[in-house]
Amino acid sequence: MQRDLFDNTIFYYDFAADHWNLGDFRDILKEGDTFEAEGKTWEIVGRSNIEQCFTIIEVDDEQV
To answer: Which of 34, 41, 42, 57 counts the highest number of beta carbons within 10 A?
Structure first.
């Protein structure tokens, strides 16, 4: 996972590295979906199959 250079709230989740072991689940996730990892809720705000990554943000659990 890599933090955006200009916005500290945006991260990029690399499909190949798959740090959180999403496995096949990452193939069905799409924009607007949320998932749990590291005790936090993350929302997918973008998906690039070409770059093989999600753009994700941490979501306040009260907003979910």
So the answer is: 42
Task: State phi, psi for 41 to the nearest 5 degrees.
Answer: -100, 130
Range of the domain at 39: 2-59
Query: Does 64 reside within a domain?
Result: no
Can you list the alpha helix ranges (DSSP code H) found in 1-64? 25-28
Record the pTM: 0.84
Within a domain: 36:
yes
Q: Which tokens belong to 24?
A: 């096949």
Residue pLDDT, tens place only, 21-35 = 998 898 899 999 999
